[in-house]
Fold:
Amino acid sequence: MDKDKIINHFGMNFYNKLINDLKKYAKLWGLSGLEQIDYYSVNCIFKCVSDKYGVCVLKIGKPSEEKDTEYHILKEYNGRRFCKIYEADPANGVLLIERIEPGAQLRAETDLDKRLDVFCGLFHGLHIKPAGKTLYPTYMKWVGDIVFDIPRFILNEFDDVHDDRFYDKFVHITRTLSENFNIPEYDIRRLTYVEMCMAICWSVDSGRNPDIDEILFTEKLMNEMR
Structure:
């Protein structure tokens, strides 16, 4: 465990709590072989082995509304499209979840139509109605709706050069998704424009220079459908 990195990222109080939590939950849930993953966000993450569940991931973070939401979502999905949740103490910011090894990246598939088939299949089975709506934040606190998963996929398909070849690719993507999801193609292109603007804003917020050409390109394609 990298003590210095943890303290620099989370602070000394968190580190002291972490040491106690590791001992507590290792004993409580029968965990062994704890190995920290060198990744720092809002959680400290450890690979481990559970006497009851086998290989797992232990996530320890600060208690928060987001942590509660994650717990309830994983519990409702129960392994459908997401990892299973085995044990939890969300009030203390601790989750024990199924360990899932990453597969091949979607862009590693060279056939665009196959990538589209995978995304469409995933999208159709991804969203379920919550049993308890009050447990989750609404989109009044965020931007957009379920359909915003569509332009996020499209943005991942963007090439570095916006030439005629990419133009044809973009049109093929928006038309294919429109047919699969029964959503007007113009709406998909509008969603892509909004998502691109948001992505550029987040990029600027992170200290990078904005790429106005990306916005102009998506705006041009959106306006073509009017």
Remarks:
- The chain has two domains: 3-98, 106-223.
- Residues 185-205 form the longest helix (21 residues).
- The mean pLDDT is 86.
- The helical segments are 3-10, 12-28, 65-77, 112-124, 149-156, 164-181, 185-205, 212-223.
